[in-house]
Amino acid sequence: MALSLQDLLGQKEFWIFLFVLGWVLLNWPLIELASGYVIMGTPAILVYVAMIWLFFILALYLFDWGNFD
Is 2 inside a domain boundary? Predict the structure, then answer.
C-alpha cells in the first residue's frame, strides 16, 4: 500500500518530526559551527539561518498547498 502525501501530512508523527528537525537545525551548537566564516561578504550564520527558514517556509507552503482539496 502506497502512502500518499495527503496521508503523510495527516500523521502527527510527521509534524513532530518537522518540529524536531527545525529545533535541531536552529539549535545553538549547529549555528555556532558557522561562526567566523563569511560567504560572499555575508556572515555564514546569517546565510545558514536564512536558508533553514526558507526551507521550512517553502515546505510548509507546499504542504498547505496540497490541503486545498
Answer: no
pTM score of the predicted model: 0.66
54 lies in some domain: yes
How many independent structural domains does the chain possess? 1
What is the rounded CA–CA span in Å between residue 43 and residue 64?
32
Q: Which residue has the cell 502527527?
A: 12
The owner of cell 549547529 is 30
Residues 6+ apart with CB under 8 A from 44: 34, 35, 36, 37, 38
CA distance linking residue 46 with residue 35, whole number of Å: 10
pLDDT in tens, 9-48: 666 777 788 889 888 888 888 788 888 889 899 898 889 8
